[in-house]
Amino acid sequence: MSAETGQFYEFGDFRLDPEAKTLFCRDEPVALTPKAFDTLQFLVENAGRLLEKDELMQNLWQDRFVEEGNLAFHIKVLRRALQDDAQRPRFIETVPRRGYRFIAEVRQSLPSMPVNTPPPNAPNRQRKKFYWAISAGLILLAGALTLGTWQWQKHAVAGTRSAPILSVPSKSRKLSNTGSSHALITPDGKYVAYTNEGGGKQSIWLRQLETSENIQVVPPSESQYLGLAISHDGNSLYFARRDRAEESTSGIYRVMTFGGIPVKIADRSEGWIDVSPDDKQISFVRCPHQPDDNCSLFVIGNDGRDERRILTRPKPTKITGQKFSRDGHSIVFAAGQSFNGSRDFHLLRVNLASGAESEVSRSTFFVVNHLELLPGDDGFLFSAEETLDGKFRIWHLLANGETKALTNDSVDYNDISLSKAGDRLVATHLSNSFHLHLITAGETGEPRVLVAARNVTFGSNGRLVYSGDDGDLWSINTDGSEQRQLTNNAFRDFSPRVSPDGRYIFFASNRTGSNQIWRMNADGSDQIQITRQEGGYPRLITPDGKYVHFLSGLHQTAWRVAFDGGDETQLWNKIIYDPAFSPDGRLLAYCVPEGNNLTRIAVVSIEGHQTLHTFVLNGNYADTMKMVWANDGRNLIYVTSKNGRSSLWQQSLDGAAARIIADLGGDEIEDLAVSPDGRTFAFIRGKWIHDAILIEGLK
Predict the structure, then answer these.
(1) In what order do the strands lie in the sheet with 330-336?
(2) Which residues are within 8 A (CB) of 547 and not within 5 positions of it... i.e. 6 or more apart?
(3) The predicted structure's pLDDT at residue 464
(4) CA 554 to CA 549: how far, in whole Å?
(5) CB burial readout 416-445, b (16+ within 10 A) else e
(6) pLDDT tens digit string along 12-39?
(7) Which one of 292, 446, 527, 550 is most buried, counting C-beta atoms within 10 A?
(8) What DSSP element (H or E) covers 337?
(9) Residues 336 and 423 in one domain
(10) Are residues 200 and 75 part of one domain?
(11) Are 429 and 691 in contact (CB under 8 A)?
């Protein structure tokens, strides 16, 4: 309702109240950031008129300098809130290279007049009765508020008052220590323990929040830290780490909070660890990645004795965040899979004595990361990504099983840790620096940097198609010119592949709730769904244009589907890592794991499933290796990493030793592609950036 006109704006099922800064859908409030609301209000107030980007940015940010991407981001947020499709918009129309137009019919309305309000010409006696009734109502309302306040105070005394952080307006600040991949706050809320990286080594530090003084707890080493936990008395710090040189070895260690000699508690642990309320037991997750034991939840004594398995999940289910209950008799944990892009993670509880499991909430998520117990009866906080295309938000799991998002900004919140009083929360803010790079064979110097990106492929004309960090697909020339947006919606579109004739682009999208394959024209028009069952990620369009070979996200096996869709046929029933199909579609190359390391490349025939070649990898790579075929069908191009640096290699099928093509630097390599002429290599390079944030209000 406008402060000047006293009006609402209504469109479709929505009602916008400018005075209250609230958007409603069928009388239910819709969560929007203040800037997104301002953007929507300006669009609605100018419905039907094309608003140029410069006009929008000037009105929304006035004299502040911001990039155009900020406007595109808030338009995307609005489309998601309005459930609008950029390709077939009902509300916000994009006018390419110009701006946006609100196209829905907008109705202006006044708030409803109370039914017992007398008309303007009513007798004075009736107006007096009306005002008397209003006064009486206000007295009753005041009494109700007084009673409510008394009840609130009564519950506060009883210890069930909400945690302070839930009743204070949003308040946060970035801590000065950057690069903290893991951080937690001590129970008294006075210190933050965090991991820090420098010179290729990682260490653990303790920061006093009052004075900003930093104390080193564990000295730098070649280890990689996976997670932190602290005892409830604040005296012992636990951490999970593994040796980078021996990726298969990881463990949990205990050290005095202000420094000392670490003592090993358990072997082979992931990063999710917790301490029981009496500080006598440690819970942790171990993932052997076996068919019948993908991940298991364990409990062990704080002295490293009496280890016992609590529960197990088969492939592909993973166990992530877990937390002891207040009485220590049960553990709330998250379990699910995110390989196929669906919302499969559930919040569950296991009784430690009986092993009985129960569902904590019916809400499901794309992935759940960390859980934190709130004081009193307020339930849990947890960090989770609701959908593949969403953000990691901080959520509230109430005692009745309901879940509610507490953050709704553009920040990804990863680790979370709460003080004992429930008034201070430390979270890690997750961002990245991945960009599309180009190098040409035989040339020296630094690779050319084009744009922020996550996946890339070449078309037959040498033009690049890539998925941006915004989750949309774009195309661009190798010199950086003629950048064009191909998709624009609230979902993530990625893993593009171009047909041999250059007419079509195939890509993965989770628009239907799981990662399925879609096809569109080279200009982004006429988008249609190709797979509807197994789904996954396109890897090759056969030269005859009849089939799409793809990798199943859920089962990690090779499949194919007809160009126009239809039955999905399995090509290879073995689990494969980082597969690459030869240009003619007859051969499949993939990585062979040994333990947690990828050590060899196998080349097999699709038709007869025969192993034709085996090559030993150069370097040590224990994560995801990137591999593609050269267009001649006789060479494999791949990336390996050793001592923190990545290299690009070429392996000939004739058995000759692999030769190095280029040094790709020390950052992570996300994707790799080769130009049609075999001379230019495109790759996505960058790193994940973690910053610690102190939060003192989530209301």
Answers:
(1) 318-324, 330-336, 346-351, 357-359
(2) 541, 560, 561, 562, 563, 585
(3) 97
(4) 15
(5) bbbbeebbbbbbbbbeeebbbbbbeeeeee
(6) 999 999 888 889 998 888 877 778 888 9
(7) 550
(8) none
(9) yes
(10) no
(11) yes
d(CA 64, CA 58): 8
Instruction: Establish if 156 belongs to a structural domain.
Output: no
* Three-state DSSP state, 428: strand
- Cβ atoms of 227 and 270 within 8 Å: the answer is yes
Q: Does 294 share its domain with 404?
A: yes
Residues of the chain with pLDDT under 50: 1-4, 113-161, 622
Q: What is the pLDDT of residue 180?
A: 67
Instruction: Find the helix packing angle between 34-45 and 68-82, rounded to 10°.
Output: 80
- Residue 377: name the closest of 453, 325, 433, 450 by CA: 325
Placement of tokens 């794309």 in the chain: 366
3-state secondary structure 642-688: ECCEEEEEEEECCCCCCEEEEEEECCEEEEEEECCCCCEEEEEEECE
> What order of strands is seen across the sheet that includes strand 273-275?
273-275, 281-286, 295-301, 308-313
In three-state secondary structure terms, 129 is helix
**Count of domains forming the chain:** 3
CA dihedral angle for residue 21, residue 26, residue 30, residue 35, rounded to 10 degrees: -40
pTM of the model: 0.73
185 shares its domain with 86? no
Domain that residue 628 falls in: 580-666
In the numeric block, which tokens belong to residue 635?
A: 């060479």
Query: Is 385 exposed, middle or buried (CB count within 10 Å of its CB: 0-12, 13-18, 19+)?
Result: buried
Residues 455, 495: Cα–Cα separation, whole Å = 6
Q: State the Cα–Cα distance between residues 70 and 12, nearest whole angstrom.
A: 26
Q: How far is Cα 223 from Cα 231, in angstroms, rounded to an integer? A: 23
> Among candidates 88, 51, 89, 90, which has minimal Cα distance to 71?
51
**99 with 50: CB under 8 angstroms?**
yes
Question: Under a CB-based contact definition with an 8 Å cutoff, are residues 424 and 695 in contact?
Answer: yes
Q: Residues 509, 493: contact at Cβ < 8 Å?
A: yes
pLDDT value for 595: 61
What letter represents residue 668's amino acid? E
518-563: pLDDT as tens digits: 999 999 999 999 999 999 999 999 999 999 999 998 888 999 999 9
CA distance 624 to 577: 8
Half-sphere exposure of 360 (CA within 13 A, CB side): 26
Distance separating alpha carbons of residues 143 and 149, to the nearest angstrom: 10
- For residue 686, is it within any domain? no
Give the residue from 432, 458, 484 where a domain finishes.
432
**pLDDT of amino acid 246:** 59
C-alpha–C-alpha distance, residues 618 and 627, integer Å = 13
